[in-house]
Structure of Peptide deformylase:
Amino acid sequence: MAQQDTDQQRAGVLPVDDEGYVIDTEGCEEREAAWRERGTSRPITVVGNPVLHKECKDVTDFGDAFQQLVADMFASQHTAEGVGLAANQIGVDAKVFVYDCPDDEGVRHTGVVCNPKLVELPADKRRLDDSNEGCLSVPTAYAPLARPDYAEVTGQDEKGNPIKVRGTGYFARCLQHETDHLYGYLYIDRLSKRERKDALRQMAENEPRYPVVAND
């Protein structure tokens, strides 16, 4: 019981490959469903809410309340049909994001990252991809944004174990996008003034397809 829990934490929630990166591509459907079914979907906080525009607090307590938060995040992500969700997107000041995201080869990745830090890439790995990007907190808006097509993140899993996550293509974009959220940045903050204005116009002209928290 208690000893078993300790052994499990030491081993980590997900297996790792020969280079120490989590293997987040196995059992994705079952793991996502298990989290989601324990959670309660919450409305999404949108651009303009102060919680989205400041760095979140580090996660230090990985107890029952935090586990419920992660479950709620998976449920909220599923309702909004997103591929990644940061805690502040449901109004919680905590440095954690969840993801259920395919890469460019269609391989599904599912996991949890707490206290993430992006690894600085050497020049030979900084190939930029300028695909469209969107955000659940800027509903219905999209804009092209150049980001590296490979990303590595270090942090902790939902039990506090140290982890490394890496991804390519669309999944690399997701890792960068969600880490940005937890440091107070939305993707539109990386756009030119004209592009940001256009994204906010798109948002204003369309109705979100999921529940959102209106800004006062």
Observations:
- The chain has one domain: 28-206.
- Residues 41 and 76 are 4 Å apart (CA to CA).
- Confidence is low (pLDDT under 50) at residues 1-10.
